[in-house]
Design a protein that fits this description.
Blueprint lengths: L2 E9 L3 H16 L6 E7 L4 H12 L3 E7 L2 E3 L3 E2 L4 E9 L3 E7 L6 H15 L4 E8 L1 E3 L4 E2 L2 H11 L5 E7 L11 E3 L2 E3 L3 E7 L3 E8 L1 E3 L4 E7 L2 E5 L2 E2 H9 L15 E5 L12 E10 L4 E4 L9 E7 L3 H13 L4 E9 L4 H4 L5 H9 L4 E6 L2 E5 L2 E5 L2 E8 L1
Parallel strand pairs: 2-3, 8-11, 24-25
Antiparallel strand pairs: 1-6, 2-6, 3-12, 4-5, 4-25, 7-14, 8-14, 9-10, 11-26, 12-13, 15-28, 16-23, 17-18, 17-23, 18-19, 18-22, 20-21, 20-23, 21-22, 24-28, 26-27
Helix pairs in contact: 1-2, 3-4, 6-8
């Protein structure tokens, strides 16, 4: 039995040529003529149609998913200036790859998740793993997001037993100004959920590389409506966060957007801190008139206890986390990495690129990753949207 995997990367302002280059490099590295499955990404400055045409001029009929994204990560390259492209190709005589799509995510996220689950369940009975890609953007003007908590609930209710699963939200730029595109075989879509199932004799392990630790005591949400937090401890939410940051933080309320992160501890309240018990929620925007926080997701509710989270990227934790998961896989074939766009050096304020440490940790195991808006992984058995994290998955034989 044999499985061949190859990774390609290209930076070329000509979208068609970039598609040809990145997929051709991947095929050459895999040592194959045509893949069974391809995963492709392109930066926001590319013409999606021309890029896909370039890829398809080489791959012909292989199953394919992907999309536009904020940036791309491979073993030897990473970039987020808008012209970077990446591809992974796989050919196997014992692993099977099936691709699925559910459109109209923006109309009803929960219903879209259930519909996708039914499509998958109809085709695959058991012993499979899933990778998901969804369009983060519901609308660009004003910026509104598709809620992963809602489609995750629909998907989970339909797929029982729930498979091993990770996913990410495609995001073309950090300001939500550029629409996403998604690639599904020969189609270019928006506002959809894409999935690839992996079946056959394989192993699938994932781990969350967190970037936040609690920096406050527990506070209670006392007025929440959908994604809007109006009150914390019976006081206006913005005023509470302002006080929690301390007298010298130097931020205006409008600066809390995409900066303030709240943590929800899904473990025991006063046990030792464990990264794996926390689901972090990022502030998308603020309503200064109502003194309210508008969150990326609508799952926080009145009565929940949250903590203010302090952002940091522990590079030792990155190395140890990836090392631990790789050792669980006897014959690792491919690493799929989903990294929060906010963790890139210009946004995080760090001196080093966190993804460079990921590259060092994975060594020569084929790696393809993208910078995302939201990451998806299981926490305590349930699929959770995450913010300011990296999700690494290792697929092996």
């Amino acid at each position: 039995m044999a499985t061949n995997v190859g990774i390609g990367y290209s930076v070329n302002k000509d979208s068609f040529k970039s598609g040809v280059e990145c997929i051709s490099k991947a095929i050459d590295k895999a040592g194959i003529s045509e893949p069974d499955f391809s995963m492709i990404y392109c930066g926001r400055k590319h013409n999606p149609k021309e890029f896909l045409n370039g890829v398809r001029s080489v791959t012909k009929d292989s199953k394919l998913i992907g999309g536009s994204c904020f940036g791309v990560i491979t073993n030897d390259n990473l970039g987020y200036d808008g012209y970077e492209c990446g591809a992974a190709v796989i050919k196997s005589d014992h692993l099977k790859f099936d691709v699925f799509v559910q459109t109209e995510l923006e109309k009803d996220e929960y219903a879209a998740g259930k519909s996708l689950g039914l499509k998958i369940k109809k085709e695959i009975a058991s012993d499979y793993s899933l990778l998901l890609l969804y369009d983060s953007i519901k609308s660009n003007d004003p910026p509104r997001l598709n809620y992963a908590t809602l489609f995750s609930k629909g998907l989970e209710e339909t797929l029982q037993p729930f498979p091993e699963i990770v996913g990410g939200g495609l995001l073309s730029d950090a300001l939500f100004a550029v629409p996403c595109c998604q690639f599904f075989n020969d189609r270019i879509l928006e506002k959809s959920i894409l999935a690839v199932s992996i079946s056959g004799k394989h192993t699938f392990h994932s781990s969350i590389i967190h970037g936040c630790k609690p920096s406050s005591s527990y506070k209670t949400l006392t007025k929440v409506e959908g994604p809007v937090i109006y009150e914390i401890d019976n006081q206006p939410a913005l005023e509470v966060i302002d006080k929690m940051l301390g007298p010298d933080h130097g931020l205006k309320w409008k600066d809390f957007a995409l900066y303030i992160t709240l943590g929800l501890n899904l473990g025991k309240k006063f046990e030792d801190f464990d990264y794996n018990n926390y689901a972090n929620r990022l502030v998308l925007a603020v309503d200064e008139k109502e003194k309210a926080l508008i969150m990326f997701e609508p799952d926080l509710k009145t009565g929940d206890e949250i903590q203010l989270m302090r952002r940091s990227i522990d590079l030792n934790y990155v190395t140890e986390g990836i090392g631990d998961i790789v050792t669980k896989v006897k014959n690792p074939l491919f690493i799929f990495y989903i990294d929060c766009a906010g963790r890139v050096k210009p946004f995080s304020g760090g001196l080093l690129e966190e993804a460079e440490e990921v590259q060092n940790a994975v060594g020569d195991i084929p790696l393809l990753g993208f910078y995302s808006g939201v990451e998806l992984a299981k926490i305590r058995g349930k699929l959770q949207p995450l913010d300011w994290t990296g999700v690494v998955s290792v697929i092996g034989e």
